[in-house]
Amino acid sequence: MVLLGTLVNGLCIIVGSLIGKFLSRIPEKMKTTVMHGISLVVMVLGLQMGFKSGNFLIVILSIVIGAVLGEWWALEDKLNSLGLWIERKLGPSSKGNISQGFVTATLIFVIGAMAIIGALDSGIRGDHQVLLTKGVIDGFTALILTTTLGIGVILSFIPVVLYQGLIALFATQIDRLVPTELMDMLINELTATGGIMIFAIGLNLSGMIKIRVANLLPGILVAAIIVSLIFVYNHI
């Protein structure tokens, strides 16, 4: 089954989030310390991913152009409005910022080599090992994030299943149409660009600053376009 790894990954996020919701009734002092610990880990993860870039100019252009597009489209405001609507539907029991939990978890779970390589392995070879491993990691991460950011984390299973599922379903075509060199470049630069956003999320979680991370999201698409244009130019 091509989508087995993706579906298990999504299920792990759901289960981890639900467990995290039951564990969220911890003292406020402890929750603050846990949040600071998570923010430090997220920042280190973002830096580690950011250093994977082979050409940091691509990352800079992607972030800058992506920020302009994100502010123009007001993605952060739209996500916050969606989050408030969901909070009203869930009722007073929904604790935490829904949109913050959703965006934070989605970026952490979707950005990176494991999502792309795992989905390709599932689609081409029927090997789900990478996604199953990622599912376990994502499940524990969702548990921890939910205790501090709230149940909005559970919604991240939707983009994870859609993103990885589409790659898995079209893996054979992707493998045939996208050269290995271009795929390697895409993975590195998308991971690095996403890593900067994850670092920004870490800063937000620490309370040091408030960066509108959702308005940086178009940078992922911009990075893919820039890398593709560079590859085509180098092979003309």
Molecular structure report:
The chain has 236 residues and is an all-alpha fold. 79% of the residues lie in helices and 0% in strands. It has 11 helices and no strands. Helix 5 (98-110) runs antiparallel to helix 7. The longest helix has 27 residues, at 180-206. It starts with a helix and ends with a helix. 43% of the residues are buried. The model has no long low-confidence stretch (mean pLDDT 90).
Mean pLDDT: 90
Low-confidence stretches: none
Q: What does the radius of gyration come to?
A: 18 Å
Summed up, the helix count is 11
Order of helices and strands: HHHHHHHHHHH
Classify the secondary structure makeup into a structural class. Answer: mainly alpha
Strand content: under 5%
Tally of strands: 0
A few lines on this structure:
The protein is mostly helical. It is built from 11 helices and no strands.
Name its key features.
about 240 residues; mainly alpha; 11 helices; about 80% helix
